[in-house]
Write a structure and sequence with these properties.
The chain has 353 residues and is α/β, with parallel strands linked by helices. The protein has 2 domains: 208 residues, Alpha-Beta Complex (Spore Coat Polysaccharide Biosynthesis Protein SpsA, Chain A), CATH 3.90.550.10; 105 residues, Hexapeptide repeat proteins (UDP N-Acetylglucosamine Acyltransferase, domain 1), CATH 2.160.10. The protein contains 7 helices and 30 strands. It has a 6-stranded parallel sheet with strand order 13-16-19-22-25-28. The protein is elongated.
């Protein structure tokens, strides 16, 4: 499981925690992914870490509490997707023809993992890729296949893609293919490993499906993923509460006349005041939304305080920031950790505050 990314598109949230450890619907993204792996019958996972590597082991330990055996391998310098996979090779078990499932650490997916592995084994493939359809594939790496499902090319972010099937970030590798990835240097599976296999005539197969899939790399997608987990659109056995219109974690205090809905999450120890509204938003642990404030489709960092009468719509507030009375922020504004916005200071839309 590749969990080494810094998540720069999710700043300021990732200034204090790596993206795979940010809480989505009450628990880290990685917890949902590990639950999917466990529920698919996978018993042992190696986490390939890098940025803030220590927080993974602090949270998950040896994996026994999650029904798994976990090991950790940390890269000391960025190695790319292929380099990170090669970096864990000493921790892999089994023979050269055994399958190894690779997960990208920032994807929520309803993929049938056992079906992907069966497809790989039946086709005797070197690598099998999970493919998913998107409406506009121009921002993704597209993966055309032939009539038998064999991959014919890897095209990175082309303006006129020949297919709407994209690389969905989950693979099955034959163990011997991982052994052949160059060690000790950055390697991209998309730009080097996969095209090299095709050039050599090695069988690379695609497994398209139409289950839930979401890349959590942007604040809007992060909010959507959390909302979809809370409301049950995306199933996860790691969800720390029942599916419903909202998720309120233990220790949170919500005023009787506050309105919480739209798949919102209220973190442990968070507080929502009288007459406040939290719609589809994610409140991290200890966040405060004071009386009469409205928070829509936003992410509020740990310990941040949203003052009385404040309106937030589609924004990201960093840990410990304070937004005082009657401010209004919309459409992509970001407030960095520890910032203080005085009463009435801003009423605007911005990419950064």
């Amino acid at each position: 499981m590749l969990v080494g990314g810094q998540g720069t598109r999710l700043r300021p949230l990732t200034m204090s925690a790596p993206k795979p450890m940010l809480p989505v619907a009450g628990v880290p993204v990685t917890a949902h992914m590990l639950a999917r792996a466990r529920d698919a019958g996978i018993a042992r996972v190696v986490l390939a870490t890098s940025y803030r590597a220590e927080v993974f082991e602090e949270y998950f330990g040896d994996g026994s509490a999650h029904g798994l055996e976990l090991e950790y391998v940390t890269e000391t310098e960025p190695l790319g997707t292929g380099g990170a996979i090669r970096n864990v090779v000493e921790r892999l078990r089994g023979g050269p023809d055994d399958p190894v499932v690779i997960f990208n650490g920032d994807i929520l997916s309803g993929l049938d993992i056992p079906a992907l592995v069966r497809r790989h084994s039946e086709a005797d493939a070197a690598v099998t890729l999970h493919l998913t359809e998107v409406v506009d594939p121009r921002a993704f790496g597209v993966v055309p296949t032939d009539a038998d499902g064999r991959v014919t090319a890897f095209l990175e972010k082309t303006p006129d893609p020949p297919t709407n099937l994209i690389n969905a970030g989950c693979y099955v590798f034959r163990r011997s293919v991982i052994d052949m990835i160059p060690a000790g240097r950055p390697v991209s599976v998309e730009r080097e490993t996969f095209p090299g296999l095709l050039a050599a005539g090695t069988p690379v197969m695609g497994y398209p499906d139409s289950t839930y899939w979401l890349d959590l790399g942007t604040p809007a997608a992060f909010v959507q993923g959390s909302r979809d987990l809370v409301t049950g659109r995306m199933a996860s056995s790691a969800l720390p509460g029942p599916v419903g219109d909202c998720l309120v974690l233990p220790g949170a205090a919500v005023a009787a006349d506050a309105k919480i809905g739209g798949g919102a999450t209220v973190g442990a120890g968070a507080r929502v005041g009288a007459g406040a509204a939290v719609d589809g938003a994610v409140l991290f642990d200890g966040a405060v939304v004071e009386a009469g404030a409205t928070v829509r489709d936003s992410v509020i960092g740990r310990g941040a305080v949203i003052g009385a009468g404040v309106l937030l719509d589609g924004v990201v507030i960093g840990d410990g920031a304070i937004i005082e009375r009657d401010n209004e922020l919309r459409a992509g504004a970001r407030v960095f950790p520890g910032a203080v916005l005085a009463a009435g200071a801003v009423r605007f839309s911005s990419d950064r505050t």
